[in-house]
Amino acid sequence: MGRTLPVRRLFGGVNLEVRAGDRIGLVGPNGAGKTTLLRIAAGLDAADEGQVSQPRGSRVGLLRQEIDPRGEHSVREEASVALAHLDALEAELRSLEAEMERGGRAGESPSDELASRYDRAHAAFELGGGFERGARVNRVLAGLGFDEADRDRPLRTFSGGWLMRVELAKLLLAQPDVLLLDEPTNHLDLPSIEWFEETLREFRGGVVAISHDRTFLRGFATRVAELSHGRVDVYEMGWDRYQRERALRREQLLASKKNQDQHIAQTERFIERFRYKAKKARQVQSRVKALEKLERIEIEPDRTARMRLRIAPAARAGEVVMRLSDLHKRYAETVVYRGVDLEIRRGDRVAMVGPNGAGKSTLLRIVAGVLEPDAGERRPGHNVGIAFYAQHQLEVLNPDRTVLEELAAVAHTDDVPRLRGHLGAFLFSGDDVEKKVSVLSGGEKARLALARMLLRPANFLVLDEPTNHLDVDACEVLERALSDYDGTLAVISHDRAFIDALATRVVEVRAGALREFPGNYSQYLQAQAAAAAPDPGPRTVSGHGEPSAAAAPAPQEKRARMEERRQTRDRQRARTRAERRLAAVEAEILEGETAFEKLGWQLGDPEVARDADAARRVGAERDAARERVDTLYKEWERLAAELASLDAADGHERE
Questions:
Q1: Whose CA, among 4, 200, 639, 652, lies 20 to 30 Å from 299?
Q2: What is the DSSP code (8-state) at residue 32?
């Protein structure tokens, strides 16, 4: 008979309020119950105690983690489901128009009630974006990486990651009052993440997002809700301040507990010493009661201190770890690579970046030796031992095994005595090693997959999205371990902080071609921005390829430097003016759109509809409001372009 594990209490006494405009980062260790909390908030799961309340008529949207992969209808059709209410409104408008046309042919004027119904439906359709819904669908799908041809392909032809993008598109198009997002950036490439972040900034409702992407959290969160040890602590601040505040609170709590422990020890010594002294009986009883009433400070173990991951050193590899020459690869009629070359040397830390579908994973799988090229040569270096972490590594775990059995399945005989200790480094300890793989959370499965991969030493780690499903602390621990690793690394990741901390080279994969950039991801972006900046013109170059020191006389150089400083000051003043005006314009746009919306509803008021003068006046005011908002949007675009130009100029100057 199998051993029954105890029922675990996820959390209790949770209080969390989501307001319009909130950007809440929901963080905590894997398995703490973050996804469950979002499902309860969305009404999909019931809480054991307590309740979820929301204003009447408000809508909550949850990013689902599953979607039917067998759909025959297109991506565009599936995304348009989010705007089905506009289709219903349009059908109502056509029906009302037909009814009014029949009455007109009969010589009858539309009744007040019919005209009122039509005005209300028309206003709702216009305010809901009915006339622009096709453009909205295309804009969102394009931002998430779907090109024109992809939008008309059936759902069954897409991978799970792309289907998740369709779900995200539906959620953004539906525009609920509250967005609940569970790892929204997991299946997005870096350009799509940047577009998604910009879209969230424009969203007016409240957002709660579970994410391990520290760069995303840093730019997104205005509040942080930490779910840990069965409770939620809310920090009314952004990500960086939260991390400092969290550490400070823990230090203060540790100091308070230390003082309390000293007080308790002194009191217990007094009680023990004078327990049998008649003259001290009253004082002893008073202290005993005081200890009984004392609220003891309990400090949960710091979850970050529990992970102690160290990657075992391996034998030294040759100078060239991997060489790909004249590589060709295609899938059916789709050509991925036609004659590319890549060399990875010992100690390199190569990050591969580029849009989804460009062939990054294909290239990485060829490097790892799990996928054969169609032509060309793959040549590993001398004494190279490769460990490969696949993006879909979680899918190959056996759900019927326990955690310990899953690790034992890939272990050698001499590994067996250290299996539990190895699992402990990945936060599997005690009864955790007896859990079935089928009941593990996504993050726990990711940690188990990493534990499998790192069980044996390897001098070349090939990692495809290793931080997917890991919580923030696990990402940081893995990052530190890889920083200390003395071997060679090739990695694909959408975690910008992770790439920045590790990469020494960036290989951009785009349209079947490879371009290499020295440095990390931030330096790669700087190089991209510099390449996109206007050409500053020719420079005098010496015979050795360096700018000539004698290209300009010293007085001219001095004047040039003074002119550069003046231009920098002028740009800074211009930026300050533009940023202030941009903020003011955004506030005016919000005010104008609110006025436009209110006037639209006034047009639908039966009393206004019956009063021709009032209807004309409100209609004129509404037209003026719309014209004002259009003008403001044009000014906003001009200011945004001006700021972009100033940023590009500064970026070029730094180069």
A1: 4
A2: S
| Domain membership flag for residue 91 | no
Question: Does 21 fall in a domain?
Answer: no
CA 392 to chain centroid: 19
Judge whether 462 and 388 are in contact, CB under 8 Å. yes
SS (H, E, C) 116-185: HHHHHHHHHHHHCCHHHHHHHHHHHHHHCCCCCCHHHCEHHHCCHHHHHHHHHHHHHHHCCCEEEEECCC
Quote the tokens at residue 37.
């909390």
For the chain, the C-alpha Rg in angstroms (whole number) is 31
| Paired tokens of 570 | 């002028």
Instruction: For 620-639, write each residue's pLDDT tens digit.
Output: 888 888 888 778 777 877 77
For residue 374, the Cα-to-chain-centroid distance in whole angstroms is 35
429 belongs to a structural domain: yes
For 141-166, write each residue's pLDDT tens digit: 888 888 888 888 888 888 777 888 88
Closest by CA to 302, choosing from 201, 207, 226, is 226
Neighbours of 285 (CB within 10 A): 12
Q: What letter represents residue 402's amino acid?
A: T
Quick one: tokens of 351? 């990050």
Q: Please check whether residues 289 and 326 belong to one and the same domain.
A: no
3-state secondary structure 364-410: HHHHHCCCCCCEEEEEECCCCCEEEECCCHHHHCCCCCEHHHHHHCC
Q: Maximum CA pair distance of the chain?
A: 111
Pair 471, 482: CB distance under 8 Å? no
Among 231, 218, 193, CA closest to 28: 231
Within 10 angstroms of residue 444's Cβ, the number of other Cβ atoms is 24
Number of domains comprising the chain: 3
Single out the residue of 502, 510, 540, 546 nearest to residue 528, CA to CA.
Answer: 510
DSSP 254-286: HHHHHHHHHHHHHHHHHHHHHTT-GGGHHHHHH
**Predicted TM-score of the model (pTM):** 0.62
